[in-house]
Amino acid sequence: MFRILLLCVVSALSLGLPAAPQAQPADEGSAPFYVEGAPAAVASPMRFTAGAVYQQYDDDDVDLAVLSVPFTTSFSLTRALSLGVRASFVSADGADQASYFGYADTQAALSFQQTFGGTSAVASLSVNLPTGVEGATPQEAETAFLIGQAFYGFRLPTLGQGYNVAPGLTIAFPVSSGLAVGVGASYQYRGPFEPSRLSDAEYDPGDEVLLSAGFDARLGAASTVALDATYVVYSEDTFEGFAYTTGDAFMVTAQWTAGLGGHDVQLLGRARVRGETSIPPETLALLGPDATVPTQGRLLGHARFRFGDRLRFGVRAQGRYYEESEVFSAKTLFDVGVVPEVQVAPGLWLNGRVGGTVGDLQGFDVGAGLAWGL
């Protein structure tokens, strides 16, 4: 039920910005207020995470490296009301790409959870504040555009955008002692902004409506299976008086989690398809061909081994597929990684991250961080 309750909240918080109107959004597998490697034990009335991740990817056309440094804090205002804030710094560079660095936008999210008998509801309100880098040169815009492509998997795929506001509501209720069903909806208002330092022309990204439904079923005492379906409706973007319409998206996620001998195991499969994009000739001349990936999918396996109360070691492997778009060729990728975690003081965990990617592009990532909770 926890996963269903947070589905709309996480989706509303994922305020990703394409470098061009409705280009490839951030990888849907990431959530703004989650720092990989921070153990679940840190979930507490007050929590702080900080870290740094360096990632480098290259293929025949692109050689790009990004350093992202996110800071997040969350705390409970009351038993039912919680607030989270995220701020980040990013630096990007590449052999044939313009450097792009600065602070990203600040994101804040307020959530209210209430239980009515056996039914649980979460109401959320997230806001994106445009505190990040304002505008870009054409060369910087190209770098930002590449950072935003999901197949690179950058931990911070966007830098700056306009004001965004996203209210959401998710409701989950038990059907039986081992089965819970949930439904949710959110709306995201995306405000206009000036994407270029060389022009005062405003880009107004289209608003979004997200609808979701799913269930969690308990299999025995230590494992659960969940299935979620999400449909996203995109309004048309406008730039210099021309419209750009992206097809709606449909995503299905299946997940199995279990506790085996005190260790945590997860298997996740996800597929997403996008409708056809409509680009008038005038808009095509301004923005170029459509980069949106029509279909993509992934299969992820993750295990976290516990060695006593103070040491944990995570291992993950996944395969990903991205269908060919008008800009990018099809990509089949394989990722592996390890995430060690060590408790150095009560409530304080240090974590590391080392991973690699092979297939139609090659890359690696290394990182370290801390998670502290009261």
Mean pLDDT: 82
Strand content: over 45%
- Counting DSSP E segments of at least 2 residues, the number of strands comes to 20
Class by alpha and beta content: mainly beta
Oligomer: single chain
Rg (C-alpha, Å): 20 Å
Separation of the first and last Cα atoms: 24 Å
Taking pLDDT < 50 over at least 5 consecutive residues as the criterion, the unreliable ranges are 1-43
Helix percent reads: under 10%
Largest sheet: 16 strands, antiparallel, barrel
Instruction: Identify the overall geometry.
Output: globular
Structure annotation, total helices: 3
Order of helices and strands: HEEEEEEHEEEEEEEEEHEEEEE
Strand order of the largest sheet: 1-2-3-5-6-7-8-10-11-14-15-16-17-18-19-20
